[in-house]
Amino acid sequence: MIIAVTGTPGVGKTTVSKLLAQKLGYEYVSLKDYAMEKGIGEMKGDELEVEVDELAYNFERDFKGKNVVVDGHLSHFLNADLVVVLRAHPKLIGERLTERGYSREKVGENVEAELVDVILVEALEENENVVEVDTTGKTPEEVVNEILELIEKGVRRRVGVVDWSRVYDDVIPYLRL
Ligand code: DAT
Prior knowledge:
Blueprint: E1 2-6, H1 13-24, E2 27-30, H2 31-38, E3 42-44, E4 47-49, H3 52-63, E5 68-71, E6 82-87, H4 90-99, H5 104-115, H6 118-126, E7 130-134, H7 140-152, H8 168-171
Parallel strand pairs: 1-5, 1-6, 2-5, 6-7
Antiparallel strand pairs: 3-4
Bound molecules: 2'-deoxyadenosine-5'-diphosphate (DAT).
2'-deoxyadenosine-5'-diphosphate (DAT) binds near residues 12, 16, 138 and 139.
């Protein structure tokens, strides 16, 4: 089974994906590394710009029928059996990306994206099987256990678990108003 772990940068995809792959005994794939290895897309500054159709086509050819956890903020564009959309309080996204040294502009862009559910909406347009998991206040282990429980129970759709409009005031300092 192909499990795509997606979400706003800084939400915890890499941490959770590696642990999830380890617990399931699946292969872990970083979608960015895969794209770079295959020469898909080109670097624009420090960002890799890819054609998602080309990425999805290649990924399907290489991984169809395999057991993988694929980590990346574009992974919901792949033909996955399950898309896990990780969510985190947008303030956490702001703090983590600032810590990572992202520009104010880039931090703002991602805080806003988390606030208004950009990745969730994209994922729902692409795939029926979308489960959302709120990571706020949880350890990576707790998040992974929640995902494992959903998989075990056969849950293939669970959306609407967060509503960041209620925390808008907390993140105003990060927004590009
Ligand atoms: P991403 O791959 O989405 O950019 P990351 O895994 O590289 O995210 O970084 C997330 C950071 O947040 C990392 O320092 C671990 C931390 N973190 C704290 N609580 C977490 C949780 N419940 N799940 C995942 N990461 C968490």
